[in-house]
């Protein structure tokens, strides 16, 4: 028979000791208070767009002699001088106006670049750039909506008024060109190396060919890949709805194993020129510059299902230190001879139709080989498209803020995987 | 990474004899394996050094095209890269100075004194060391976004100090714990007040630990990508620039810079070790 | 002496104040802010408000559970690989390194003086489809033309293993070096063979080092995104890549914060279990090296 052992008093004390002391209570209260305080903080929204620009904005401003110009790669005429890359048309501008340009090809994706300058814009500080080039179909509308762009002084834009194409004037996303001037337009299609693919690519269906598995790259922003798949499914992106997006997402998941990776503008150039990718989503003009800089085999094609037509726009961000220099350049590129130089070098759809006459005049004076090259340029639907050429092009879906969140939440996880 | 050498351990007893002579080849397995390991670790470094001499014609530095030294003279011909390297060095120096001062103080406090809240303090240091960099970066970004503090130079320095400080603290603390208290007691017996004792006895004794901590902080700062990528705004540091360049092709200048930084770091480590050995002798 | 006693008591607080303040302001507070952000809703233009939006957590899991799980799986694989690869080397150096122990250790760690990003970029270079390694092999017909290592899981795992091996070697070495060789001798004297002596003497005694190594390897690998960013493609994205993109490109701060917290919760559970069980000494010691 076991005798009950008396409980050790120390054990009893330990078991019954109050676990929750006064200090713990104070600590808990402190933490709760801190959390409540933090809960009261939120994050300020960035749409200070209701504040109209002061009418005297341009009054006191003068030329500073410096221009910080952020642009995309492969979007300017280049030449090699002593091993370094130089931009002849920018040098010409400097010679004429005395404005030195600090030109940097730092924009590879709209959202990534905007993500970098938004905090400064929100805080009303200088974002570091006087002139930026942003695409329509979402990004430029966002900037306008949030009031992050400087209103242009139309009196400083004589070349634009005189020489801009009708399509460039008064676009839907910026009535009256209050904030932006078109830089170039272009198409998003497919680029490929026929030497590696061993066949011509003509349709989006070619992307599903098992022979190309792991050799395809797509743009990794949350817009271009979904839009391409939508076009492949026969959906018009501009009028698509949430059900369409969900259908597209499913299709994207089916196509994804074919891909090698997602790239941005510079990454696309590297993937194609190094041969890591045989096919890639690409901008129509980039291929021209790739061809002349070491990758002559790459070809661009508008798939028969269609391609997306976009316009890149010059704009001056709020807080820019040298707005007068920026607007001087913006008007300068609408001069027909300048527009012609740019059209010849970068192979995109120019907003200045008179550039065509300039090029024809140049062709007449050129050597036989050069004349052929220029005439090919003039005839190219990628630089001077006709109405018929543009018939099969689609537009991006322009999203409201709420729609953007839905869109991102549907598509980002797939692009991110 | 720095290797702090400790007291040389007593000579290891020779390996136990293996029965049977025909088993002797098995003795070579482990050393061979270790040398293969060393080779495996060194492969990317060798490649980096060698391709810093590659005479590339086009943009792509992919296949060997010939030997040249001109990247060593052309080192600063990419302005953005040079700026990024300069930013990294400036940030590293500033954050090293700050975190060494603060970290030494923490190390002293933790190693020497007992005070209320020391347990929680200790826990905070431990958490700061073991927290993943991703979380450090993301939480600092959250802070800056909420307080509308524009990200740039200042935020990078703040972040670098935040993650270096605990490493310095721990390094100094180890040194503090190893200090012989009788030396300070002797000084005080001879009439020195606490501040003089600290200045003339404690600090010099702690110096190796402080220097080790500073080197660690410098190395951590100059190499950091993850935390910096969250809080850098538009300021580019060297690792950030290189990461961006991997998408389009890393220019040979990066190889050269990497080689130089590597040789510099190795020289410092070797020097440090030799100095320590000489001090002990 | 006692006149100074009152002030002397303040000394530790004053000495520890700057550091404590810095860490509270820039380590503890940000974590709390991030937690608060994770429960907010809204968008970057109209602002975010605190709404107890636990849906951010469920959304984070719904959208990105693949990447979460993938990160944990990668971390497990890489940690296992590192352990297997590092142990023999640490063992040999600790037991047979002799007077040149520190030299060997130094040689092993020397490559890691080069920047992390450069090392990984070098691997991208080495593994390039048409680079100096794969190119000749393809030209010789030993590999099919469309073979590629980059943008595959193998490349990412390889990169991760390479970059985090030293995190495993060091604690293992420290623990193994501490083992008194006379214990192994004693085992031999008691007729234990080499394998047996290892299994029953060395291995158990090295376990604290194994645990430390596993801990300080697993946590960073799970949250890494540089390797997958440079060496990976689709199907290799880790949760770190997602968090960075959602923060910096989508500006969807609440979702990104929720993801960070989910990741941290998963890792913290491991860390604190470890700390409770085995104390913080091993980790603190290793971080001085």
Give the topology.
The complex is a heterotrimer of chains A (417), B (281) and C (289).
Chain A: H1 9-16, H2 22-40, E1 43-44, E2 66-70, E3 79-81, E4 84-86, H3 88-97, E5 100-104, H4 110-122, E6 132-135, H5 139-145, H6 158-163, E7 180-192, H7 194-197, E8 216-219, H8 224-232, H9 242-255, E9 259-263, H10 265-274, E10 279-283, H11 286-292, E11 299-301, E12 307-315, H12 323-332, H13 336-346, H14 355-365, H15 368-379, E13 393-394, H16 401-415
Parallel strand pairs in A: 2-5, 8-9, 8-10, 12-13
Antiparallel strand pairs in A: 3-4, 6-12, 7-10, 7-11, 7-12
Chain B: H1 29-50, H2 70-73, H3 79-112, H4 118-130, H5 133-146, H6 153-177, H7 181-189, H8 194-223, H9 226-231, H10 238-248, H11 252-280
Helix pairs in contact in B: 1-11, 3-6, 3-8, 3-10, 4-6, 6-8, 7-8
Chain C: H1 2-38, E1 40-43, E2 47-50, H2 55-96, H3 101-109, H4 116-126, H5 134-139, H6 153-178, H7 181-189, H8 194-223, H9 226-231, H10 239-248, H11 253-278, H12 281-286
Antiparallel strand pairs in C: 1-2
Helix pairs in contact in C: 1-11, 2-6, 2-8, 2-11, 6-8, 7-8, 8-11, 10-11
